[in-house]
Prior knowledge:
- Helices cover about 15% and strands about 40% of the residues.
- By secondary structure, it is α+β, with helices and mostly antiparallel strands.
- The chain has two domains: about 5-110 and about 250-270, 3-Layer(aba) Sandwich (Rossmann fold); about 115-250, Probable inorganic polyphosphate/atp-NAD kinase, domain 2 (Tumour Suppressor Smad4), CATH 2.60.200.30.
- The protein has a six-stranded antiparallel β-sheet, with no helix packed on it. Strands 14-13-12-9-16-17 form a six-stranded antiparallel β-sheet, with no helix packed on it. A five-stranded mixed β-sheet has the order 2-4-5-19-6, with helices on both faces.
Amino acid sequence: MNADAHPPAGDGTPQDLRPLRIGLLASNRAAAQSAEALLRRQYTFAPADDAEVLVALGGDGFMLHTLHGMLEGGEPRPVFGMNRGTVGFLMNDWRLDCLAERIAAAKAIKVAPLEMRATTVGGETHAHAAINEVSLLRETRQTAKIEVLVDGRVALPELVCDGVLVATPAGSSAYNLSAGGPILPLQARMLALTPISPFRPRRWSGALLPEDTAVSLRVLEPESRTVSAVADQFEVRDVAQVDIALDRGRSLTLLFDPEHALDERIALEQFAT
C-alpha cells in the first residue's frame, strides 16, 4: 500500500483514504466516538464493508468483537487498532496524524483462534471460536470435577477446581496469566493448559502443549456440579464435555506500529513486576 499516493491536503480538505480502501469502526464508548469524529474530519474513509484494511477504535474488548465478526462470517481483513478503551493490549497508541503512513509501515501479526465445541448436559452442541482462551468455570458453590484428556488419552482422571482454561499465545498474558499460567511468546506454537484455583491435585500448575494438541474436558457429575464454558465472550452453560483445538485455517491479521508490536509486548510481559 503506497501511503504517499494521497498526501494530506494543506487546505483543510480531509485526506481521501477511499482509494487505499481503509475503513473505520468504533466502539460505543464516548472516547472512541469522539476519536471517530476527529478522524472523519481529517480523513475520508471507504465504507467498512468494502475496505481492504480496518481501523478499530476502542479497547481490547472491541478488538475481539471486531475479530469475532470476521470469524462468524465476515470477510477477514487486517485490523489496525487504536486504543480508546481501558487496557489496549491489542491496540496501537491513539494518534490523529499520519494514519495512512502508519498502516503502510505496520508490522502484520497473525493470530489463530481456538475452536470450542461444547456439548451440554441436554445433548446440544455449540461451536464458538476463541482468540484468547476457552475457560471452564464452576456455576455454583461446589467445586467442579473435570477429567482432562490430551489427544484422546486421559491425562488427569479428576481435576477438582474452580475451573480450567486453554489459552493461545495471544491470550496467554490475559486471564491465563491472572490464573497463574505462563506467558507464551507468539512464536512458541504452544497452548497453555492452566487450572483455576485447583484443589486436587493441589500442586498441579498446568501444562504446555504443542499447538496441534486436541484437548477434551469432561465434566464429572455435570448435573450436580454444573459448569459453564466460555470462549472469549461467548458462554455455554451446563456443559458435559468441551473439545478444544487450534484452527489455523482461520488465522486473523492484526497490524501494529513496528516499535510497539504485539509479539514484543508479550515477550516484555515476562519481565513485568
